Amino acid sequence: MAKKVTMQQIADQLGVSKFVVSKALSGKGGVSESTRERVIQAASQLGYFTQPHGYGKNRKQPSDPAVPSTRQSVLVLMPNVRFQTPESLYWGKILNGVTETLEENGLGVVIISEQRVDAVTGILNPDGFLGLIGIGQISTPLLLEVHRIGLPMVLVDHEDPLVPSDTVFADNMDASIRLTNHLIGCGHRKLHFLGSTGFSRSFRDRWSGFRAAMEDHGLPVQDRLDPMNTLPTTEKAEFEPELRQWLLKHRKGRTFPTAFVCANDDMALVAARTLTDLGLRVPEDVSLVGFDHIDESGSSSPKLTTVHVPKEAMGRRAALRLLERVRDPKAPLEKILILSELVLRESVSELRESAAELRTESVQKEIRQRNEENGGDAVLSD
Fold it and tell me: Which of 45, 92, 157, 188 could form a disulfide with 183 if both were Cys (CB 3.0 to 4.6 A apart)?
């Protein structure tokens, strides 16, 4: 049996007191941010967070699998960062799915839009809530505090490497592969991704899908540190000046994309307006696709090709998963992927010459492969 990792071991490794480690792991004040980060890193390396009978096991589980009468509410945490608000066309619909499902099951909902640990700790009463559902990006110290008191939780569109929990995502990578393949099938070979890979887990997965599709077809992929991969992504289009500058710089170059794959619809709509301002037509000059299928994507001109992310369904599944977790606390943790669908519209045009060239290269590639296998010349019949 593996030896239990204790706070004293963490303290000894760092040369600090056990009291400092306890304060750092609890998310409370009294220690500097740098010390807290050192403690969390050391605890992670020693396996403190993943041990089966330590951290996060303080809470006594009810013997009755039914919802206890003293815990009739669920805490929904949606910190007001990166426009994660109920008014958001993306996050708001996830929240609707969560609250409607909980209310259908006779549960109350307490929504908190706060990120600071000390502001939330006061209400994190394990006897006052059935569990927690986190929507969007939530800080590690706050999640560690929830985990420390043993409150069951499910995270939507976010996961933390230090905090084991059930999670719910859209199939971002697979959907991005299908979306990129659609553009390639339409003959596009010079594609560019728009969206900061550091903005969220979803954006990173969408970039990974784009890259995988491009590499699978032997097409050149922009560097991960390309300026368009580090845009200051917000729903207020703060990235528009940088995008405009990039477009002006590359407009006359031979490497100018024939299509842009945008990390979400908001970016795609801003990109469409910027391209139009520069005298470029969508889709006649440049094709454009988005992601998320927000309402505006269907009312834009031209209507935007995008990926329908079932946002309400993600929220509903998170709520149901929390109820399952409460009934069976020892069940294996799950990462749930909700299938997304392509929505093909007017913002993509076919490049016939490029498509023909792509088919020619595919034939040539097959000839080369047969030559290598047979050691001689190969001829393909029609």
Answer: 188
